[in-house]
Amino acid sequence: MAVPVAARSSKTPVDRPETLAEAPMPERSERRVVSTGMADRLAERQAMARHRTRQRAGVIAVLALLLAGGGWLVLLSPILAVDPAKVTITGEGTVIEPAAVRALVTDVDGVPLARLDTVALRQQILELRGVRDVRISRDWPDGLRVELVSREPVAAVPREGTIALLDVDGVHVADAETAPENLPQIEVPLEDSGGRALRAALTVVAASSPELRAQVATVSARSQDSVEMVLRDGVRVRWGDASQSALKVQVLEALRAAPGAAKATVFDVSAPKAPITR
Fold first, then answer.
1. What does each C-alpha distance from 227 to 179, 206, 240, 245 come to in angstroms?
2. Do residues 143 and 83 lie in contact, with contact meaning Cβ atoms separated by under 8 Å?
3. Which of 117, 91, 93 is nearest to 105 (CA)?
4. Closest CA relative to residue 91, chosen from 146, 168, 10
5. Cis previous bond, 210, omega within 30
6. DSSP readout, 22-66?
7. pLDDT tens figures, 207-244
8. In whole angstroms, what is the distance from residue 216 CA to residue 154 CA?
9. What secondary structure does DSSP assign to 83-122, as a single string?
10. 53-62, 123-132, 183-192, 196-205: which has the minimum mean pLDDT?
11. How far is C-alpha 24 from the chain's CA centre?
């Protein structure tokens, strides 16, 4: 059977190349679209990176300015410096000279609190007569608190035409022309080697209650083992050494308060567990 001529001529060699030539065109167009999209995203990423870098640089610059300003404010500015009108001094007691303390504190007027050397200032104040201890604290923004602990005299000791006032540690804190009426006078031998008798007498005075201490006129000690007190009403108290002083105070006060003790003139508490009254 013969093939019709029209059927063989339906797909000519000319048609076939045209179809093959058109097929790759979408692929080349797709590659161009993909390449352009990647470039855009890369450019966007680079722009964001530059933006973050500028942000970080700005934050660092602001922080640097803040730190510099804060350092100036704290370390150099007069705003946070010691104001003499806002310095408080307490605890002068009876022997510390407030003017001497104030003079030392005046030297730091205008010094920024952060730069104030409180250790050096404390050492200077401790060297003043009558100062037992001192606590210095900053009172922000421009104040200062100076809290003193005074060496209060507890006894008077005659020395070379004057009266030396001593605290409980035997420290010479002041002088007086006459013995104060509210302080016991201590009498110890001039040849007291090492001051042991004086220390024993001061220990007894320090151990006494405020009520008993107010009644003591004199405390004598021929040696560290023979302390004796004379009260302002003439009663004599034989104390012995300075050991068990707290117990001896309790025993003496109990004996003085006991019925029938009004006529006693001697109380011997040198052996506190076996006291003698006569």
1. 20, 13, 5, 11
2. yes
3. 117
4. 146
5. no
6. HTTHHHHHHHHHHHHHHHHHHHHHHHHHHHHHHHHHHHHHHHHHH
7. 999 899 999 999 999 999 999 999 999 999 999 999 99
8. 11
9. PGGGEEEE--TTTS-HHHHHHHHHTTTT-BGGG--HHHHH
10. 53-62
11. 87
**Position 25: which residue type?**
M
SS3 269: coil
CA gap 75, 91 in Å, rounded = 30
pLDDT tens profile 85-100: 899 999 999 999 999 9
Least confident of 63-67, 163-167, 239-243, 257-261: 63-67
The answer to whether the CB of 250 falls within 8 A of the CB of 242 is: no
Please state, for a pLDDT cut of 90, what percent of the chain lies above it: 55
Of 168, 157, 178, give the one whose Cα is nearest residue 210. Answer: 168
Element (H, E) at 250: helix 245-257
Tokens of 68: 């510099």
C-alpha radius of gyration, the chain, whole number? 48
Helices 196-207 and 245-257 cross at an angle (nearest 10°) of: 50
**Alpha-carbon torsion angle 61, 63, 66, 67, nearest 10:** -110
Residues 6+ apart with CB under 8 A from 205: 154, 155, 168, 184, 186, 213, 216, 219
Amino acid at 75: L
What single letter denotes the amino acid at residue 231?
Answer: L
Tell me the residue type at 80.
L
Categorize the per-residue pLDDT at 257 as very low, low, confident or very high, splitting at 50, 70 and 90. very high
**Encoded tokens for 262:** 């009004």
Beta-bridged to residue 102, according to DSSP, are none
